[in-house]
Amino acid sequence: MIIPANIKRLSALLLPCWIALQPPAARAQDLYVDLPSIGDSSGSVISPEQEQQLGAAFMRQLRSSGIILEDLEITRYLESLGQRLTVNSEDPARRFTFFVVNEPSINAFAGPGGYIGIHTGLILASESESELAGVLAHEIAHVTQRHLARAYEASERLSLPTMAAMLAAILVASQHSEAGQAAMAAVSAGGMQYQINFTRANEKEADRVGIQTLALAGLDPFGMPRFFERLQKNSRLYGSRPPEFLSTHPVTTDRIAEATSRAERHAASKKDDSLDFQLVRARLHVNNYDNPKQVLDDFRRYLDKGDDSEPDKRYEYALLLNKTGNTADAQHILSNLHQDDPDRVAYRLALADSYHSAGKHRQALDIYRDSLELYPGDILFVVPYGRTLLDTGEADAAYDTLKSFINKEYNNPQIYKLLAQAAGASGRDVQTHAAMASHYHLNGYTREAIEQLKLAARVPDISSYESARIQARTKELQDILEDEDKMK
User: Fold this and answer.
1) What average pLDDT does range 280-307 have in this prediction?
2) CA distance readout (Å), 172 to 143, 167, 198
3) What's the pTM value of the predicted model, to 2 decimals?
4) What domains are defined for the chain?
5) Dihedrals φ, ψ of 119, to 5°?
6) Active site annotation includes 451
7) Is 178 a residue of the active site?
C-alpha cells in the first residue's frame, strides 16, 4: 500500500482542510504560502482508490483515539444534511463521509477522502440548521475545489497508514489531550513537520461556493455569514482562547461583509430551521449534562409540560426523565409525541429505548419490528432491535437480523461488535472471532484484529470456505499492519 514515487507533493490531498489540524506553532504564523498544484480530480497524482484508502485509515486512527461520537441518530442527521448539500455541490458524484467528534469546542474539519467531522460544540453553537449547514458547505467546498491538494513537498515516500496516523495525531493533539500529545510524539519521531494553511483566496472561494451550495439545497444562504458574525462578536467572551474555528479560519469584517453580499444574490429561505435539527441539539444537551437530575429540576421549574409546548422541549424533557429513571413519565410524553407525529424517527427510537430501560422488552420489540417494516434495513432500528433480542435471550434471531444487514453498514464498528455478541451467544465461534476482528480493525486496532482471526482459524470443524475467507482477510490485515509498523 505504498504510494507511487510520482507523489512527492502528496500531503496536500491528504492533509485535512482543517480547522483543528493545524499544529499550534503554525497557528502563530500567517502561513499564507503559494503552494504548487499536485494534480486535478482525474487522480493523476493520487488515485481515488488511494484517497479512499487513506480516508478509511484516517477514520480508524480517529476512532482509536476515542474522540468519535458513536451516536447513530446524531450521525444520521449530519449525514442527511451533508448529503443534501453534496448533491448540490460542484462535484455531486463525489463520495463524502460525515461524522461527529465528541468535543465541546466550536470546530470542524475535512480530512482525506472526503471525510468531514463536526464537533458537538459547533452543533450546539449553531442557532439554526442553515448555520450548521453553512459550516458544512464551506468544508465541502474546500474538498470539491481541490484546496486539499496543496502542501509542502514531502521529504520521503510515505505509506497510506503512516500519513493517516500523522493526520489523526495532529487532530487529536489539537484537542490538548494526553492521548493526542502521545500520538503526536509517535508519528513525529522521524522529524516530520507539516504546516499548511489555506490561502485567503481559498477561504473566499470556499465561502462563495459554499453559499451557492446552500442556496441550491434550499437552505438559507445567510446562515454562513450569520454564524461567522456571531462567532466574531462573541469571541471576546473566550478570552485568550477563541474558538478553534476563528483561529484557523480567520473571520474578518471584510470577509463577513463579502459573504453577506454574496448571500444577498440568492433568495433567502423562508424556513430557516428544522425540527430534526432541534431534536439533535436536545439529544446532545442531555448527553452532555453532568448532573441530569439537577437539570431535570430546572426543567420542571420553567418548562410548560403541556401539549402546547415546543416538541423539542418536550422531547428533551422526556430524555431527561428517562435518563434519571422516570421511565413512566418519559413514556407518557413520548407516546403523545409519537401519536402526533408518527413518522418522526426520533420519537420512535426514544419511546422504544424508554420501554427497554424499564424492562418492557416486548413493547420495545414491537416498535422496532413495526419501524423496520416502514424503514427496512435501517441501521437506526437494526442495532437497538438486535440488542433487545439479545437481552431477551433470542440470540439466533439477533444473529440472523444483524448478519443480513452487515454488508450494508460494513464501516460501522457497532454492528460488528453486536454481531460478535449474537454469534457468541448462539454458539457460532468462527463468526464471533471474525466479527470482533472487523470491530477491532475499524477502531484502529489491527494487531488485535489479526489475533481474533487466528483464533477463528483454530476453531475445530471450521469449513473450508470459512477457512479460506479467514486466511484471505488475515493476509489483508497483515499487509496493513506491516505498513503501520513501518512508521514506528
Assistant:
1) 77
2) 21, 9, 20
3) 0.81
4) 11-263 (no CATH), 289-486 (1.25.40.10)
5) -75, 145
6) no
7) no
